[in-house]
Amino acid sequence: MTTHTFTPDQSPGVGAVRVTRPYRAVFLDWITTTDHKKIGTMYAIAASVFFLIGGILAGIMRIQLAIPENDFVTRDVFNQSFTMHGTIMVFLFLMPMLAALGNWMVPLQVGAADMAYPKVNALAFWMIPLGGTVLLLSYLMPNGPHAGSWVSYPPLADVSESGTAFLPGHGVDLWIGAIAILGISSTLGSINFIVTVYKMRAPGMTMLRVPIFTWTVIVQSFLAIFSLPVVTAGLAMLWISRNLGGRFFDPSAGGDPILYQHIFWYFGHPEVYILVLPVMGVVSEIIPVFSRKPLFGYKAFIFATLSIAALGTMVWAHHMFTTGAIQVHFFAFTSFLISVPTGVKMFNWTATMYKGKIEFTSAMLFALGFLMMFLIGGITGVFNATGGLDFSLHDTYFVVSHFHYVLVSAALFGLFAGFYYWFPKMSGRMLNETVGKVQFVLLFLGVNFTFLPQMLVGLDGMPRRIPTYTEEEGWGLGNLISSYGYILIALAAILFLLNVLLSMRRGKISGDNPWDAYALEWATSSPPPYYNFDRLPLIRSERPVFDENHPEAVATGDH
Amino acid sequence: MTVMGTVIFLASEVMFFATLLGSYYTLRAVNADSWPPEGIEPEWPLPLLMTATLLVSSVSIHGAVWAVRRDNRTVLTSALAITVLLGVMFMVGEIFEFSIAEFDFEGWKDGPPKGVAEGIVPGAYGSMFWTILAFHGLHVSGGIILNSYILFSALNGRFSSKNYQVLESASYYWHFVDVVWLIVFVTLYVVK
Ligand SMILES: [Cu+2]
After folding, report:
1. N or C: which terminus of chain A has fewer CB atoms within 10 Å of its end residue's CB?
2. What's the pTM value of the predicted model, to 2 decimals?
């Protein structure tokens, strides 16, 4: 076990803020840093702030919908709320939060001292608050923010034949600017991840010994690089339409509104995998550690990840079945195909747990929560991908429920799992396990209370994006339960925040490898020194730390 | 390492232009009988000259890389200077192309520009045409700034046969801009 003395100049992690340097120096140090660990922490802080904002917007919607014919907010505010909620949660919470874990863990997992381009890394981070500010500025503009949903379909987000905007003001324009900034940020981050892994792996770390989480970040990065520029180009065209008189999407001038939908979903579907793949990586780190078995089918898992990414670029039009302008059979078929590699992963995880000595730590509980929620999300996805069924499910709350089961499971269960697992490495202290378990129960109940009723009212025909509904439609009870569920999710999030803030100062000292885990990040001290590694273990398998700590198991081949 | 990052970055740029060009061909198929709209005939002589300019500049920046590998400073700086100059000449041509355009960007200020409703300039065709040209032009302008910076560094003796990653990356970017132009030229002026 390596010990590391904690000096201010090397202060790396979350717990480091308590050094006794003047605040100004600490502040300057953080805003000028190019250390991947500090940048990772800043990503996490920024993402948490935006999670709070996105969460409040969700709360506004849940209050408005809790009872029939409610007038808590106006129609406009409701429209703005769901538009901004979606945008913020996808681009300013989930993507930066995944970048936080990626920044922290990818260099550590491959045994590098930092990212390949530390300055580009800092630039990519600072574009997040910039993009967020541009987006939120629209609240100060006349007519307020974008109110046309995060998909921003023309004609609604475009201008009419006579040049008047259906959504007046600059809400949509600022939104386009923000997405462009955040897209470029993510592209730069992705380039950095790929080059870091390709060029900076420790000696002995072949590609087939790279930890699964890092693998998923790499595949995610490729998806980002090939899909984000597409939506940037599409949104540039939308901006030119709104501001310079371009006519790309207006049929009366030879344009085509379906073209926009193709462009948007060519990005939009891979985006789902951009959000979910790294979370699958997190879960694949945690399940083997707490089952005390290696991941079942390491190579199959990597292959499944690559297959999901490849197939994921061929399914986008399943979001457009009801336009009648696409090949429903083709896209339904390719969408079904994705359930094969996803099923392989489910099998990887369950087979890993089979006959394992399972330890129900908070991290493990959240990982199992992810599996269950993701299964529901996946199965409801098959319904949506079925051409015929989709015609009745499209744009109902069934769809809302489906993608929240996918994304909330990823966003909350997967990320909480990751933070309970890696917080000791980041800060040198453990998060409180009891709080973690209470939080897990709250979240599990909260998510199902919120989204299961939505599935049912959706099957009953409740459309998405409506600001209210009448008593006679009979959706009142489902919506009320859903709104109560929101409170549970909010409580779980608040508990987590308190847990982090208190554990940062008072948590149990963790030591280098509290979980007896096996990937390379556990070989260094907690928190790691500025330069990450004093020494590296011999890397002869995908579990170098296990090999070093358990020579007896390696000798008997029992690993 | 800089080179690898640049190549991946260029992959994302390929997707950006592929989207614009893909949109062009989609709208062309949608408006098969009025593409380009009646009375519009993009003139190719100037763009052909611009193509030649850019092609030669690709050769010259390759010359700069060739020279730095052999530590030949005179050839290096003059090849870079020629590259910058040719880039500027290309942009002069493109600005001229824009200046003779009938497409009025400010058209919306006093009602819709003439012909919008009939689907002619600046309808879908004009929008695609100028958007593609403009984004390519922006990339060329960025390249000129980058190449000028490289030239400046070279004059300060920054590159040698052991250290020319930045120069090589810039050359990849410039070749990319050149190849995109070839596709843009063929699309807008030959295939139409
Ligand atoms: Cu999809």
Report:
1. N
2. 0.92
